[in-house]
Amino acid sequence: MSVEFSLSNPSRNMINQSVKDFSRAGADPAPDTPRAPSVRTQGTCFGFELHSAIPFRCLRNGSGAPLEVRDSPVAQVAEPGRFVGEWAAGPEPSVFARLYNDGQVYRLWTRSGGWSLIEPRIPRITLPPFDDPALSEENIWNIPIALCLLHRGDLALHAAAVEINGSALMLVAPGGSGKTTLAAAFAQEGYRVLSEDVACIAIDGAPSIVPGPAMLRLRPDVVSSLHLPAAQVIRRLPSRITVALSTENRGNCHPVPLAAIVVLERVAAEFETERIPAANAVPVVWPLTFVMPSDEWQTFCFTRLVDMVKTVPVWRFARPLQFSALPETVARLAALCADGQF
């Protein structure tokens, strides 16, 4: 399930996380001897080549820098390190994720999943063991991978992205604004979905999107209203259905030049498009950026965000929030990209 969170510290930065629906009990796991299953190279995601014994079903083709992903019980420790921040959700927010750092290793606690270790300098991620591999696949692509992307020098945003004629269109908006549904509508029309929850932006040189998992997490009514060719359901909950997109249209993780950023508005009676000046775009996009609560990291991310909106146009796009309007929404955005208006 995809839920938007606020980091409960003075910086109040937000990133979309997917940890609320862990199916395990909330108790911290006891220490145990790590298992040694067969590790294999499986595919790529966010430019990393995954080496893991966990079966992943939403990876892309190609090669990249190795990222080791393993599942093993991680013991709770008395001193997990410096407290970094915590995440909360719900109408009356309650904490369900806390992050610590001892200088080398991040330790992430989730209320329902226990402890994970993130070692971005290696890089390596150790997740709690889950009975369903789809849980591991869903939950690695939020805080754990965002930390690795940040340490690699990239930006991580709560956003979706699609490829149109060899360029990337990034869709940003708060949760509940329909960006994942819109990404699914693009997939229905044969476009390649580059991300649906966390978007990775490489800033060195011209800004570009590094494709994430070929995954969509959709409400049941969205799944029943759209046709996603060759997509496979890998996890089903009453509130969300997780699908792996067709292997034929996944491609690799080569960066895709970022043509435009579209800020989606929740509701409008008619279609409206308006350019947002770079100075005004920064406060719109900044709250959706994953940022560590330190002056150094905030300066790092803010500088890259400013560099991005200086060179990439940002547009406000209002549209009717109805299933019947999705085909025209896709057609209008694709036409604007094709005409170079973005």
Write a concise keyword list for the protein shown above.
342 residues; 5-stranded mixed β-barrel; alpha+beta; disordered N terminus; single chain; Rossmann fold; globular
Count of DSSP strands: 21
Secondary structure: helix percent: 10-25%
Strand content: 25-35%
Helix/strand-derived category reads: alpha+beta
Overall shape: it is globular
* Largest sheet composition: 10 strands, mixed
Q: Let me know the average pLDDT.
A: 85
Name the CATH class. Alpha Beta
Q: And the CATH topology?
A: Rossmann fold
Strand numbers in spatial order across the main sheet: 2-1-6-7-8-9-10-5-4-3
CATH architecture: 3-Layer(aba) Sandwich
pLDDT under 50 segments (min length 5)? 1-36
* Helical run tally: 7
Q: What does this entry show, briefly?
A:
The chain has helices spanning 133-140, 143-152, 179-188, 220-225, 278-285, 295-311, 326-338, and strands at 3-7, 14-17, 40-45, 48-52, 65-71, 82-89, 94-101, 106-110, 114-119, 124-127, 155-164, 167-172, 192-195, 198-202, 208-210, 215-218, 232-236, 241-244, 256-264, 272-276, 314-318. With 342 residues, it is α+β, with helices and mostly antiparallel strands.
